[in-house]
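SUBJECT: A protein chain and its fold
Encoding: whole-number codes for local backbone shapes
RECORD BEGINS BELOW THIS LINE
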Amino acid sequence: MPMEYRIGTGYDVHRFAENRRLILGGVEVPYKLGLLGHSDADVLVHAVMDALLGAAALGDIGRHFPDSDEKYKGASSMKLLENVSDLLENKGYSIGNIDATIIAQEPKLSPFIDEMKINIAETLKISHNKVNIKATTTERLGFTGRKEGIASEAVCILNK
């Protein structure tokens, strides 16, 4: 049977909130605000999970980890990513690569990108060179430019 390649995309957004930690890629980023969400609101990991689930035609994170379920309240998105990794492995998929972009006017994220990349790669049990993470601003345009929140996009290739 020939190798099957599947492409997935993911997108997520969370608004800023007071008295919350800012967690991106499993890294606590020092900032005056955190992201609001049922779990730890790790917008980067949520986009990555949706890309992976989408490529495998397994729905999205809302289907697997609904915000109506109290067991996911305050959950670590890295733990949820581990569950997605196990699901993909059980279905016979391997990850070809992941490319993700964090969209935020603030804070400056470049000092934390390498650690985010390592966290995601190690959680997914893949080589670090299969994960790429970038950060960009929107030149002060839109909700991210107004510093109301952070968005993230991700794409991936799965092999089977």
Observations:
- The mean pLDDT is 96.
